[in-house]
Amino acid sequence: MVMQQTVIRICFEWALATMELRKAETYLHIWEALHSTLMPLGDDVELALAKARLYRRQDRPQDAWKLLQGVPTVELPPYGRAQVMLQLSHVTLHADAPFNALPALMECLALCEDIGSEVLMAQAKVLLARLYVAMERAEDAVALLEEICPYVLEHGGWKLQAEVGLEMAKAYFVLQEYDKCLVVLEPSKVAAVNAEDLLLGVEVGMMIARVYHMRQDWEARDRVADECLRWNESMEASREREAADVVSVLEGPHALLRVLSDRGMCVDCGEHTDPPYDVSKSTTANYLTCAEYGHCYSCESNNHCRMTQSYAEGSMWSALMVSELCWVGPLPSTNDDNAPDEPDPSMLLSKFGVRFPIGCQTKETGLFLTQKENGIMGMSQDPNTIVPFLVKSGVLRANLFSLCFADTGDSGSTDSYFPSSVGSSFASLYRTIANGHSYREDDAVLLSPSDQRKLPNIQIVLRGTTPGSSVVLSIPPLQYYTANADGSVANNIHFTQSSGGVLGASTMANFDVIFDMDQHRVGFAPARCDDAHGHGDFAPNVSKGQWTDKSFWEVYGTLVTAVLVCSSGGLAVLLLVRVLGRRQQHWTQVALEESDES
């Protein structure tokens, strides 16, 4: 019986190392059956620890955490408690929230000190070094690992030697000491191969490829990356339960990503300006679980978080959430040999980068299928948008940004939407001012630019930040008409909403729009956004100050209480739309009193 259990344990460890996870499950079931007999090898804790390690390799950290939390540690001897705390530290140590692992890790270190277990102490210090790197204390991580290196090299197994070298290389990488990275990574690679741990070998190879990329040794990097890809393909063929993708390939000297396969890409998406982003080819991306991201629409079978978003104009997307290192700004040029010297991507990442949750789209509909750009960047007040992350990381000083939409190109949600209850009165008033020209929301018409210029402007009056003040946005016809490919034009201001409304780019184009999120203010300044030297003859204009119509605020003061008042649900907007003729002005009331949830 003892011999059988010993063989099963060895087979389980081998299957776990080679990522044959279905076989590992089978061996674990046999182990459980033998454990229930009269002469089990080990106790319940040993079996629970083995199961937790399997869950970790299956990318099931929540299941591992629940299993370990159920172990009665108070009844265990110190060595058993230390083993449980070590596994809990593995499960809870995450780059986005490294402090979650600190309680279990500190208890594990204290227990190891008490019982004098140098092996467990070394394993715990490897995790502590990883925690130091996540806390931006790379020097402390190096010092800690150098302290345990002599013992690990003399007494530690191949796997522990590979782990120590890998974590030391990660610390050196943060310190930009790339030569030292290679010094420790080469023996780590040999140790991972000797340990027959396929996943660990891929991780070491990924790190070597990253170092060669930073040194701009593209040939060496691609050689290692191709080797990693073969390892990954072997691992994918072995495991039958999906786990997180780990291979990462970099292409340079200017590109950050190289797409080598179609695995995991968006199959229901349009063709855009750039190749699709493939999570499995990134060195810095991690799928977010539903426990890590609190706004999931649903949880996949592997506990990956899925988000879905719909928009007022009918488009939607669905995506898996990923934690990635991002910065705002263009990538260096890839095809201009005469371009001036450009910053190294690694410098941009270290200076301006921030770890940020992004959605990797697997489905697109509506405008997302046909737009030129690869995705959408939300700029709402939600704390999960990019600006708050940049402020929190110290890249930006204030929670403030500006947008400047040109009159050409596609900005996404270009149209504006107002309540249907005022559509008929607006159309009637427009026809009167425009000398019989009808405002058709759904029909395209043939109008030359000169004919469009004869039509009235639409003005949107926004109440200012001080009593009695206002801001007037004047939208010219060349801006509230959108040109079609066949030469016709169509209105982009619609009256279709049951309540609430949306100010799209059709009302913001050729304005420099400043969003001050902390002070809950929005500012408008006329601009020619596609030309730094001025605005054209059809650009909008803005005026401000005391409203000249003395009766205006007495009549409409209750209605127009705010414009773009920031609320928890979105933007609550109260507007007054004016149609201007040459000699007279008329008003129609457009009350947008409810938050836009779209």
TrEMBL record:
Query: Does the record carry Metal-binding as a key word?
Result: no
Residue spans crossing the bilayer: 555-577
The alphabetized list of GO BP terms reads: proteolysis
Q: Which UniProt keywords apply?
A: Hydrolase, Membrane, Protease, Signal, Transmembrane, Transmembrane helix
Which Gene Ontology molecular-function terms are recorded? aspartic-type endopeptidase activity
Q: What is this protein called?
A: Xylanase inhibitor N-terminal domain-containing protein
Organism in which the protein naturally occurs: Aphanomyces astaci
